[in-house]
Amino acid sequence: MRSRPVRLRSRNAAADQLTVRRHNLSVVLSHLRDRGPRSRARLAAETGLNKATVSSLVAELVDRGLVGEGEAEPATVGRPGQYIRLDGEHVVAVGAEVNIDYLSVLVLNLRGDVVSEKRLALDTARMEPALVLARLGRLLSQALKRLEKNDIRPVGLTIAVPGLVGVGTGIVHEAPNLGWTDVAVVAEIRRILGDPPYPVLLDNEANLAALAEIEGQGPDRSADLILLTGAAGIGGGVVAGGQLLRGAAGFAGEVGHMRVRAGGPRCGCGRRGCWEAAVGLNALLAAAAPEHDPVRDPSLDVEKRLAEIGNRARAGDPRVLAALTEIAHWLVVGAAILVNVFNPSLLVLGGYFAALSPWIAGSLHDELRLHVFAGDAGGTRVAFSTLGFSASARGGASQVLDHVFQDPTLVEPAGGHHPVAQEESV
Amino acid sequence: MRSRPVRLRSRNAAADQLTVRRHNLSVVLSHLRDRGPRSRARLAAETGLNKATVSSLVAELVDRGLVGEGEAEPATVGRPGQYIRLDGEHVVAVGAEVNIDYLSVLVLNLRGDVVSEKRLALDTARMEPALVLARLGRLLSQALKRLEKNDIRPVGLTIAVPGLVGVGTGIVHEAPNLGWTDVAVVAEIRRILGDPPYPVLLDNEANLAALAEIEGQGPDRSADLILLTGAAGIGGGVVAGGQLLRGAAGFAGEVGHMRVRAGGPRCGCGRRGCWEAAVGLNALLAAAAPEHDPVRDPSLDVEKRLAEIGNRARAGDPRVLAALTEIAHWLVVGAAILVNVFNPSLLVLGGYFAALSPWIAGSLHDELRLHVFAGDAGGTRVAFSTLGFSASARGGASQVLDHVFQDPTLVEPAGGHHPVAQEESV
After folding, report:
1. Could you tell me if B263 lies within 8 Å of chain A, comparing CB atoms?
2. Which positions fall inside the HTH marR-type domain (chains A, B) (predicted)?
3. SS3 at position B154
4. Residues B322, B376: one domain?
5. Do A258 and B341 touch (CB under 8 A)?
C-alpha cells in the first residue's frame, strides 16, 4: 500500500522527481552504513520502498561506485541471496588540517575506515601562509597520488583551520594563533592541486572535530555534545539539538575568547582574560617548563612533547604537576559556563587535554558539579577524545562523506553522467 | 502533474494518511497566517495542493473554528470570490507567568492579537508556593470565565517560571529566586482549574520570552537570536539555527549562573561570581537606592518602580547613574561570552534592561565589539524588547498557537470529533 505524498514546496515537477530519487538513494545508502550488508529484499522490507525501486536504486549506487554485491552465506531456507554492502574500495574522502604545530592529512573510505594518515610537525606560526599552504599542498599531492595509483577516486576535500573561516568563500578571516588574516586557503590549494573536479571546502577545526566525535558514536549519536580542542588555541565545536551550531555569520563556538580570568595573561587575540590564554597548550608549557626546554619547541612533534610532559608528571616533577593543577582549575571554570549555557549530554576534551587526561580528569566532574547550576552538572558526562590530533582532519573527511550519504548523486558514475531518473524507478 | 511520494518511515498506511492530512492542514493554516486572507484558488496555486484538496482542508479548518470565510471586494474580472482568513473569534491560547515580583496572564487569539492581559504585583519570593499558585489560579479562572462568557474556547495554557523546569513532567525542579524546589505546578493548576480538557504546559520563562520575540518578527524571523530576561534573575532564551536550544535534559540557557565576576556578591543559588548577581534587578536596586526606598519594595508594581528609577536617572541622581554604569559594564562582559559562543544575528535585552534602555544602550554595541573575537561583534545587533514584562506569558500563549499551526487537529471541531480523513481528500 502506498502512502499519499506530502507535497513538496517547489512546483517544478521534474526537480521534485529528482529530489525524491536523491532522497531514496540516500535512504538506501545510509541504511547500509547504519545497519550493515543485507539483501535487496531486506532493504525493501526495512525501508518501506518497493522491491523494483530498491533494485533500481542499488543499480545506480553500484554504477556510482558506492555499493557492491557480495555472495551471502547459504540461507537456511531457499537459495543463497546476493548481499549489498558499502563499497570501501573505490570512493574516498580527504580531510586536512593546518594547526599551530602541525599539518595533517587523513583519508577515509566510504565505510569510515582510515585509508591513510600523515602528520607533519611544523612551526606554522612562524611561517608565511603561502609557505604553509605549499607544504600542505605537497602533503596532499603525495596522498592523492597514492590513491590515483590504486584507482581510488576522492570525492571531496575539507581543510580545517583554527580560526574564523568563511565556509562559503574558502577564506580564513582571522586565525590569530597562526597569525593569518584573510588568507584564501581554498583558492590556493585548488591551484596547487591543479583544480581538481571535486569540491574543496574549508571549515573551523573545532566544528570538524565535533563532527568526528559524533560520527564515532554511530547511529545512536548524542544530540547535544560539546567538543573542546586542546592546542595552542581552544576551539569549541557544538552540536545542539542534533545540529552543528554555526551562528548567524558562521562564527559560533569561539569559546577560547570567553573572558574567564580577569587580568590573566595576554591572549593571541590581544585581549586579556581569554580562556585559551589560561588553558591553551602554550599556557601549560610556559607554566610547566623553562623557555628553552625542548618540550616548548614547536618544531618537534606535539605528541612526543606531550608524552615527555606525561613522563615528568609521572615522575613527580613539581613544576609540571602545579601547571597541570592550574590548567585543570581554569578548564573547569570555562567548561562550567558552557555546561550552564548548553546542557550537553557529553563534553568531550580533545587534543592535549586527552593526551594528559590522567592529570586533568582527576576531580573534573566533581568540580563541574560545584560550578553548574543544574543538579549533577545537568547530567553532563565528561569524556576524553580518543581521536588524538587527527580529529579535525577526520571530521573534514567525515563531512565530505556526510554530503555523499545525503546526496549520493554527488559521486559521478565511473562511465560519466548518470541519465535522469525515470519516473518508473523513482 | 503530481510528484511521487517521499516514503514515510512508518509502514502504517492509515497513520501515514493522517500524517499527510495533518501536514496539509498545517500548510494551509500557516499560509493564511503568514500571507493573509486569500481565495481557495489562490491557496491552491500558492501551496501546490489541488483545488478539491484545498476545499476539503478549508472545510475541516472551518469546522474546527480555525478559519472563517469573508466576502471579498469585487474582483476586477469576474464575480467576487469568497476569501478565507484566520478566525480570530473562537479559539485562543493562554500564557501565564510566575516571577519574583509579579504574576501575569495573557490571552492571544489565533491571529496573535492580545485578547486580554493582566499583571498582579506580588512578592512571590516570600510566599509559600501553594499560595502563589492559588493566586495564579484565581487570576486564570477570572480570565477563563470571561472567555467562556463570550463563547471563546481556550486550546491550551503554558505557564512560565524562572528556573529549571521539567517540560515533560510539569514540575519546577529548582527556582532559587522564588525559593522553589520540586513544585508540581501543572498538577496544582490543573486541579485549581477543574482538570480542563486542553493541555497545560510548563516551560522556562526565558525560553518562552525568546519564542515571543521570534513570533514578533513574523515569517522572516532570525534563525539565531538570544533573548536575555532582566528581572531578579537573568535567563537566556536561545534560538540557534532556527531551533529553541533546550539541551540534553532541558536545562540549557542558564546564563545567569555563568561565572563572570570572581569574588562578586553572593547569588541566589549560593555561589559567588554569577552573572545575575552582578546584573540582576536586585543588584541594580541595591546599588541605586537605600534599603527602605520604595523602589526596592517588591510588593509594588515593578514597572512603576523602574519608571521611578528612570526619573531619578533623568534628574541626574549620581547613585542611580553610577549603578546603571556598573550594570552596563557587567552586562557587556557576560553578553560578550554569549556572542562569542553563539554568534547570533540579534541579542534582545528584555525586562528591566528594556525599561531602562536609555541608560544601558549607550556604548553597549561599541563595548561588545571590544570583547568579541569576531570583527564587528560577529555582526550581532543589539535590540531592546518592546514586549515588556509580559514577554514570557505571551511566549507561552504563542507556543500553544504554534502547536495548533503545526497540527490543527489538536483543536476539536465544535460538534465533536472529526471523522478520519478520506483518502480522496488527503
Report:
1. no
2. 28-67
3. strand
4. yes
5. yes
Domain of B152, in residue numbers: 91-209+390-408
Cα–Cα distance for residue pair A321/A312, rounded to 1 Å: 8
pLDDT in tens, A80-112: 568 999 998 889 999 999 998 899 999 999 999
Q: Which residues, listed in sequence order, are joined to residue B98 by a DSSP beta bridge?
A: B103
Sign of CA dihedral A313, A318, A323, A329: positive
Closest of B63, B85, B92, B70 to residue B150, by C-alpha:
B92
CB within 8 Å: B373 and A260: no
DSSP 3-state of A332: helix
Residue B279 lies in a domain: yes
Tell me, yes or no, whether B190 and B233 share the same domain: no
Distance, CA of A287 to CA of A332 (rounded, Å): 18
Q: Examine the domain organization and report whether B157 and B252 are in the same domain.
A: no
For A195, counting Cβ atoms within 10 Å of its Cβ (0-12 exposed, 13-18 middle, 19+ buried), the class is: exposed
Number of domains in chain B: 3
Chain A CB within 8 Å of residue B359 CB: no
Nearest-Cα residue of chain B relative to residue A424: B4
Q: Are A328 and A360 in contact (CB under 8 A)?
A: yes
Measured CA to CA, the distance from residue A378 to residue A374 in angstroms comes to: 5
Pair (B341, B231) in one structural domain: yes
Q: Which residues of B touch A234 (CB under 8 A)?
A: none
Q: Are residues A339 and A380 in contact, defined by beta-carbon separation less than 8 angstroms?
A: yes
Q: What are phi and psi of B71, to 5 degrees?
A: -70, 135
Give domain status of residue B422, yes or no: no
Give the model confidence (pLDDT) of A195-244 as tens digits.
999 999 999 999 999 999 998 887 778 889 999 999 889 999 999 988 89
pLDDT value of residue B16: 61
- The ipTM (two decimal places) reads 0.86
E strands along B261-372, which residues?
A: 346-349
B203 pLDDT more than 80: yes
pLDDT one-digit tens code per residue, B6-48:
333 333 334 467 778 898 999 999 999 989 999 999 999 988 8
Residue A403 lies in a domain: yes
Question: Does B250 contact A at CB distance below 8 Å?
Answer: yes
Same structural domain for residues A276 and A372? yes
Q: Which residues of chain A have pLDDT under 70?
A: 1-16, 72-81, 415-426
CATH number at residue B54: 1.10.10.10
- Sign of dihedral through CA atoms A394, A400, A401, A402? positive
Tell how far CA A60 is from the center of its chain: 28
